[in-house]
Amino acid sequence: MLKRFVTAVFLAGLVLAPLGCGKKKSAPVIVIGLDGAEFSLLVPWMEEGHLPNLKQFMDEGAFGELTTVYPILSPVCWTSAVTGVNPGKHGIYDFQRSGKDGAPALVEQATSRRALPIWLLLDDYGYRSGVMNVPMSYPPDPLRKGKMISGFPFPQADINITYPPSLEDEIGDYPLDFLGESLFKRTPEEMLRDFYKGLEARAKVAEEWVGSGDLDFGWFVFTAPDKVQHFFWKFMDPSHPNHDPSSSSELKTAIFDLWKEQDRVLGRILTAAPPDARIIIMSDHGFEGIYRQVNMMNWLADTEFPEWLANHATPPMMVTNGVLHYHLEGLVPGSADGEALKDEFVRLAEGLRDPETGDAPFEKVFRKEDIYSGRTLEKAPDIVFYENPYYYVTSGVSPDSLDLAWIENLWSTSFSAYHRPEGIVAMRGPGIEPSTSGTLRERLQAGGDFKKANIMDITPTILALVGEMLPDQLDGRVLEEVLTEQQRLDYPVVVGEVPGFLLDRPVREPTEEERESMKAIPYLDGE
To answer: Which Gene Ontology molecular function entries are recorded, alphabetically (predicted)?
Structure first.
């Protein structure tokens, strides 16, 4: 499959390369991704002086909230960020996808991606790129003028995650980035040590690459904030049902302390960057504590759905991370019954109320047609749940062991916080209009410096900053409201057809050997 992928990329390059020829290169663009960055945490800490580098960056640039796509999962969100399209076009909906004909779920990889990421577009235009740790970027893309270190998920531990392959020898002790319940099989203190080790390893790479002067474009992602917030929120939050007041101060301040270190790392990268670099700091989503969980299997058992499903030939149901896969429209010839069932499912789910609090667990329940468009719609989950704050959707237990209530206090011993749709974005550098009015809190309360920025807007904005053609199949827009008049005059936005941007290749089914290796993937264990 990799050979086919390489061929597709280079064929696209033969068509695209002339578009970027003969034009003076602009100043470099650097993206720093802070997975899970959340303003409700960061603004108070910036105001109190604990995150001086992030505060200075936002004071000197433009910033605001960045809404994301659904489901709010790192592989989905980051893929929309780097392609500028919705999941219906890029084809990544989860860490895993349903197997064919009832086969076990399969882990997604970059080879499942159906749209070119920005580093491949820029590679075709002749830019020198450096890409590090972007989720859903394994296997690494073959860059003709760049280098890349893949981000999770990985099929196994003993793999080469770099392009060129020789780069792995240069980066030294660089731990793979894993995520999941299995991480909590170690002590919290051991987890924290690993988070800091990974943060420092990635900091060294980013600092060296950004400071080398060899990059026209870079995209670097730090996932330590996401992990520490997932696992350590309950120690920080006295209202959390799993909060233990007797926990050590190290655990209670784990999130705060890691953010201080992340800020120091940010300062190192900003210092290393060329003075004319345009820098974007962003997150893929926000965060909030989760207090209550909805066990979907248990709820389904109390509805009329089991009887309906027992009388129809149905594929196995897969519920994960707030998405439901049933592909109901294919169950009955003509699909009328399947569509009616989906409508009824949405109606009942939206009408649910927590008997303990009276609150609705779901702010919205989407059918896939409500939020996706594109050629991969058939692969999309049938239903996507958008939880209200403090609620979390899980599969619960299998129908053979229905011993849980459909809703209850969070019982996970590891995750204590989860994703919210409002992330962050900040931009600074030549061509970007800095805001001059108000404190950070005042600017944010006024809506920030952007007009409803979405994660799909990052790639179009980068292409506009460097003056390259925007594919007409992008779903995002250029964030022109923060670009200077001179930037818009020097690099007017041009939209046109970019052949090969949306890839048309079959998804390769894994071999039996690969299926076996996937069973040991740590960040899928228990999720």
So the answer is: hydrolase activity
Whole-number Å distance between alpha carbons of 205 and 198: 11
Average pLDDT over residues 505-517: 58
Structure tokens at 272: 């290393």
CATH of domain 2-285+421-524: 3.40.720.10
Q: Beta strand 407-409 with 286-295: parallel, antiparallel or unpaired? A: antiparallel
Q: Can you give the pLDDT at residue 485?
A: 97
Question: Which of the four pLDDT bands, split at 50, 70 and 90, describes residue 436?
Answer: confident
Residue 434 CB neighbour total at 10 angstroms: 16
Tokens of 371: 């939020």
Q: Record the pTM.
A: 0.90
User: Is the pLDDT assigned to residue 416 strictly greater than 80?
Assistant: yes
Burial 296-312 (b: 16+ CB within 10 A, else e): bbbbbeeeebeeebeee
pLDDT of residue 511: 58
Domain ranges of the chain: 2-285+421-524, 291-417
The architecture of the domain spanning 291-417 is 2-Layer Sandwich (3.30)
CB 71 within 8 A of CB 442: no
Question: Do residues 492 and 509 lie in contact, with contact meaning Cβ atoms separated by under 8 Å?
Answer: no
Dihedral sign, Cα of residue 415, residue 86, residue 446, residue 259: positive
The alpha carbon torsion through 496, 481, 363, 356 (nearest 10 deg) reads 150
Query: What would the DSSP string read from start to end of 259-280?
Result: HHHHHHHHHHHHHHS-TT-EEE
Instruction: Provide the H-helix boundaries in 237-389.
Output: 249-252, 254-272, 296-301, 305-310, 336-350, 368-371
Strands (E), 436-499: 470-471, 495-496
Q: Phi then psi for 331, rounded to 5 degrees?
A: -80, -35
Ranking 1-15, 127-141, 449-463, 476-490 by mean pLDDT, the lowest is 1-15
SS3 for 434? coil
The one-character DSSP state at 238 is T
Asked whether 105 and 69 are in contact (CB, 8 A), the reply is no
Asked if 322 contacts 384 with a C-beta cutoff of 8 angstroms, the reply is: yes
Average pLDDT over residues 103-131: 90
Q: State the helix-helix crossing angle for 52-60 and 254-272, rounded to 10 degrees.
A: 50
Asked if pLDDT for residue 21 goes beyond 80, the answer is no
Q: Is the pLDDT of residue 56 over 50?
A: yes
Question: Which CA distances in Å does 496 have to 29, 360, 377?
Answer: 22, 44, 24
Per the model's pLDDT, the better-predicted residue between 401 and 441 turns out to be 441
